[in-house]
Design brief:
Mean pLDDT: 88
Shape: elongated
Largest sheet: 4 strands, antiparallel
Number of strands: 7
Low-confidence stretches: 172-178
Strand order of the largest sheet: 3-4-2-5
Oligomer: single chain
Distance between the termini: 10 Å
Amino acid sequence: MKNKIEVFGKASLSIPPDVAVVTLGVATENRSLTQAQSENAMTITNVIQAIRSLNVHEQDIQTSRYAIFPQYDYADGITKFRDYRVEHLLTITIYELDNVGALVDLSVQNGANLVQNISFIRQNNDAVYRHLLKEAIQDAFQKGKTIAWSLGIFTPIYPILIAEKFKHGEAPIASLQMTPIVPGEIVIEAKVAVHFAF
């Protein structure tokens, strides 16, 4: 059995995002389900029109959830029907990041009362990731050599297993403050596990 050294190599890069994804929508409540749906449809239509006025294309606005919930009150061990709650959520992809705050504000002004998530992504980061993966492997090789030399092993080491650990790219959660939206930077990270034999 060969002697082995196992190390992890990694490389990361912070880059600005170029796309925002916002999930927001409208919740309405009424004892009449038909009325709750009608009010919701009218308001969500106003929200969509407001979003479109910011040059967001129709294909970049999608319904991500539509749900109906009966609402109940509980008192003295008795369950009593109150009304129906209708929720319609939209997921909006925004390519002009300076418009994110204005989009949220305009949506709220036009009736949106649910803002569930604002996230930032980087398109086409595969080339960046492959470059980082190469750097992660080089990092692992340097660590393997350092460990070997520290142990007084001067014979060549060679890899017998290389495993990609994960592919990762994330941005910090946006802060929502009436309403400058700060996207921060996306951290793209590559990590590998390498087993060396000597």
